[in-house]
Every structure is written in C-alpha cells, then in structure tokens.
Design a protein that fits this description.
alpha/beta
Length: about 350
Amino acid sequence: MQANTQVKPVNQSLYKYDLFTSLPQNSERVKEARRRKNQETYTSYKLLLEEFERASGYDLTLAKSILATVDPASRLNPSFHAAAHRAKEAMIVGDALECFRALKWIETAKHTVSHSGIQVFSPNGTLACCEAVTHIHQDQTLDVHGRRAEIFHTTQDEIAPYTKEFQQALALLKFADEDMHAETIELISQVTIFKAQAIMGGSLNRTFGAIFIASPDHDPIRGHSSYLTHRGVPYFLEHLVHESSHNVLFGLMLSDPMVLNPVSEKFSAPLRTDLRPMYGIFHAAFVVARMVRVFKLMVRKGRPEYQRLVDHFEPRLINGIRVVSEHGKLTPNGKRFFESFAQCGLL
C-alpha cells in the first residue's frame, strides 16, 4: 500500500502580520518582538561572560553552559534581562564583584517562565523587582506636588484584593479586545503591585516582560477622590494596557528605532507635565492610543462607565498625535507605525 505523501497546505493567513502597526493583531508579531529582545539580551549576556572570564581568569563554564540552553523565542524570566543589564553596568564602572554576582544569576534561577498567564506579586527579592525599585528611587523626576517617587514596604497579603482586581482587568481586556489580550499574554509574565507615592506604574526595557503598578489607595495625596477619579478594576485595566504596551514597543524598536529626534529636543507630553524627548512622546502616544481603544470598545460592548476614561484620555491622544506630527523625525517604518495611532485609538 502506497503511503499518502501529500502535504496539507499551511494556512498562511494565520502567520501574516504587520510588524509596524499599533493595532493589536496576530500574536506572531509580538512573539517576534519578544524574540528580538531576548536575542539582544542573550548576546549581551554571552559577551559579558566571555569578557569577564578573560579578564579575571575565573571559570564561568557552568554559567556559559546554562546560557547555551536559552531559547530566545521562549518567554524568559524578566530577571534574565535585569541580570545582563546589571552585569554590564558593573563592568562599565569596574565593579568586578557586582558583575560576577549578576553573571552568576543564571546558575541559581530559572531563566524560562514555566507558568502560563501573568503572576501577581508584591515587591520581592527577584533581580527584576530590585532593578525596578532601585530605578524608581533614583529617579529625580518630581510629580505635580513636588514629590519624588517612593515605594513603601508591601506584603503579599496587602495586595490580595488588588490581585483579584488585576485578574478581573485581564479578563476584561480579553472581553474588549482578544488580539490585545493575546499580545499581552505573550509578552508579560509578571506584575508587581506595591504601595507607593508619586507613581502609578512603570515598566523598563531592562526588566522586559514585567510591569509594575502602584496601589490606588496608599498615596497620601492619591487617597483624595479629587486626585484619582477611578479605582478598582478600571484602574488596573488602564495600567495593564499602558505598561504592557510599553513592552510591545521595547521589542519592536529593536527592529527599527522609528524615532530619530535627539534626546536633547523636548516637547509637550500627553501624560506628563514636564517636557519630554520625542522618544517618550512617541511611546506615550502609542500607549494612550491602545488605552483609548480598549475603553471605547468597553463602552461599545455595554460598559458605559468607561466613557469617562475615554473623555479623559482621548484629548491626550489627540495632543500626542499633534506633537509627533509636527515635530517627530521618524524613519519610514516609524511613519507607518505612527500613522496607525489614530486608527488604533478609533478616532
């Protein structure tokens, strides 16, 4: 009997995507963005191990052998990126001990994320969390009340109510936009929720795959209703979309920088009172377009309470688009990407 050697044709439509668009789409796009970011960190980690071994004479065979098993296409632990960054910074300033400690991270921690979905933590001792907290405390930026950001001690029990609200926000994101939800799950593996002042959220290129969200209830000023108009699930939905979208752009900008303006040029920002470089304006306009999109879709699907968020953020999106249009120096791919902001925000 002759074997059937006919190969079933692959549905190519399942694999088509536009890399340079702000519109949520086939998650293959963000898988590629994730792979590029992981590959960048992998290469940096490898070179740092080799250079430290050469300069110090110390045997790092075990770390190198573990690194060789890393698959850049997988979901990697955000601390993997933090370890490479910390080792690089330590090597630059000649801190051999700190560089050694960072490079040895891979011998004592899992470099691949084994869980599905997004896990929620209070601030803990992971390298990614330590890197983010250090960055926040060193940031000299002042809020509108003249305060620097500060993170307060937070336990896992204290964030339990927020963990539930965050998971509900994640489910609502899927309800509003399944493609954006799929993108988010591919990129984000952990969220840290903390008590703080003068900060509501953040994400860093060097902790790729992690996002950080402040409790809406523990800032001494934020506790006044006039300062924060929404709490609970809407608050966490806003910051989930905001911070995960930054991670999307971190990966995509490795394919093309998109923004060519020098950092010395400063402009009015959609979400900040201080002037910001065009890179920051571009990021902000992109994330606000995604936020406005989700809030409008929520309204269209019978959740009118989200209209106030549309009313709050849509003017900021329009202003961000105006600033980028007037002052942005963009690559051809950056122009394509920027031209999708209005469509993404359903303007």
